[in-house]
Design brief:
The chain is elongated, with a radius of gyration of 51 Å. With 463 residues, it is an alpha+beta fold. The protein is built from eleven helices and eleven strands. α5 runs antiparallel to α6.
């Protein structure tokens, strides 16, 4: 509300009030209100003042709403994009009737058919390509394992690049990796065509090549840019997968002997016990210990001891099956698990390992180093899943082999004292009746039948 409006809103009620008071005083002087209360004058003044104030308030509210609407309209006009103002058309000159007529509008161009959608093999535009590459990178980093990464690449590369013939070869660390699509495996070179190769480079190092069968038509520049970005993502994924595999091997594989570590071997032993329980087949467990290994370290040094341990690891790898579990249990102790193997087969395997280790020769410092091994063996019991008792038995068998002169194989199938242990009896629903007959007395029946007790002496009869 402006200043003039405020003054007018204050002056008008005041003038009305003064006029009302003057009329009231004049009428009072004429004697028209002989019994009137002096406060009636104030009432005559207050009524017009209040009415005028209400009218002024209503006008102020209306004016405020109109101002707000005007401000919103101006803000909308400022926010809207500025449209080009049409240029005024000059009035025609009527001197020449031909020139005065406006020129005819240009004919509409012939309607062209809508552009056809690009084929699936065409590269997408920048925004779609960025989104596709981002999803592809997330998928690669979500599967750092080598097997899962190979499966992801063989499945996703043909559809992402738009070419069915794609191959990849890389040398990352000590691993050479060759990846081909599953649908075209072994048939990439069956048909003659042109191949385009792209380097798999990361941090200035080339890990391998990415090959694409482009047929007989050259690749476009946008397609080459897309393949180069994909090759960079693949190189980073391969390097990450190699680091992941090396870290996993460091935690599960002993680098000196190539055997499993103690923690990984114990976990695999528990898995094998559960599998043996499900298949109802026994598994053999061997515990090997190199004889007088401390004297080898004391005489030739620890490097020679490491060479002996590495040689033992190679012999076990060459002798055992791929399904057998070999684990470095301690410094010079090795735990071996033979799935689906009985006692006799376990003894043959143990004896073959013992002979090959004894026949192995290691030349160190011009001297011939030879070691022997003592082996303890045991076989799992039906339904046994407790690794503690199993390891106690095989450890007792190893101590028995050492006490018997070393360089031999001993087995323990019973408890720690060597007593045989049969299959644990199954629980019966019926209560066992106590034996009330003296087991030392023979059967007193005249004719011995099939109901003879197990304590009776076979063939004994008494009338």
């Amino acid at each position: 509300m402006s200043g003039a409006s405020r003054v007018r809103s204050l002056v008008v009620p005041l003038v009305l009030g003064v006029l009302t008071l003057g009329v009231y005083v004049a009428l009072r002087g004429l004697g028209m209100f002989p019994d009137a209360d002096p406060w009636d004058g104030a009432l005559f003044v207050a009524v017009p003042v209040a009415a005028t104030g209400l009218i002024a308030l209503a006008q102020a509210v209306t004016r405020h709403r109109r101002d707000n609407a005007e401000m919103l309209r101006h803000a909308a006009l400022l926010a809207a994009p500025a449209s080009p103002r049409p240029r005024p058309i000059p009035p025609p000159k009527f001197s020449d009737p031909i020139k005065a007529a406006p020129p005819p509008p240009p004919p509409d161009p012939p309607s062209s058919p809508p552009p056809a959608s690009p084929p699936p093999s065409q590269p997408p535009d920048d925004e779609v390509r960025s989104d596709v590459l981002l999803r592809f990178a997330r998928e690669l980093h979500a599967s750092p394992e080598a097997d899962r990464l190979h499966a992801t690449l063989s499945r996703a590369l043909p559809s992402l690049l738009g070419y069915p013939d794609v191959w990849l070869i890389a040398q990352v660390g000590q691993r050479q990796q060759i990846i081909q699509p599953d649908a075209r495996r072994g048939r990439l070179l069956s048909e003659p065509q042109h191949w385009a190769t792209f380097p798999l480079a990361v941090d200035g190092t080339t890990l391998g090549l990415l090959g694409i069968g482009v047929g007989r038509e050259p690749m476009s520049e946008s397609r080459r840019h897309l393949v180069s970005e994909v090759a960079s993502l693949v190189a980073q994924a391969l390097q990450l997968s190699d680091s992941f595999e090396r870290m996993r091997e460091a935690s599960t594989v002993d680098p000196l002997t190539g055997c499993s570590t103690r923690a990984d071997g114990l976990q695999r032993l528990q898995i094998e016990l559960r599998r043996a329980q499900r298949s109802d087949k026994a598994a053999a467990v061997l515990l090997l210990d190199l004889d007088h290994f401390k004297s080898v370290n004391d005489r030739f040094g620890h490097p020679c001891g490491d060479a002996v341990l590495a040689q033992v690891g190679r012999i076990m790898m060459q002798t055992l099956r791929a399904s057998d579990i070999r684990c470095r249990w301690g410094g010079e102790e090795f735990l071996i698990v033979l799935p689906e193997t009985g006692l006799e087969a376990a003894k043959r395997v143990s004896d073959a390992l013992r002979r090959r280790i004894a026949e192995a020769r290691i030349i160190y410092g011009g001297e011939d180093v030879q070691v022997t091994v003592s082996t303890g063996a045991t076989v799992t019991r039906p339904g046994e899943i407790d690794t503690h008792n199993l390891l106690l038995r095989v450890d007792a068998a190893l101590y028995r082999a050492k006490n018997d002169g070393r360089n031999c194989v001993r087995a323990v199938l019973g408890d720690l004292h060597g007593a045989p242990v049969a299959t644990p009896p199954r629980a019966s629903r019926f209560l066992a009746f106590p034996e009330r007959r003296d087991p030392s007395r023979p059967d007193r029946r005249r004719f011995a039948g099939p109901g003879r007790r197990r304590t009776d002496t076979p063939g004994s009869e008494q009338s």
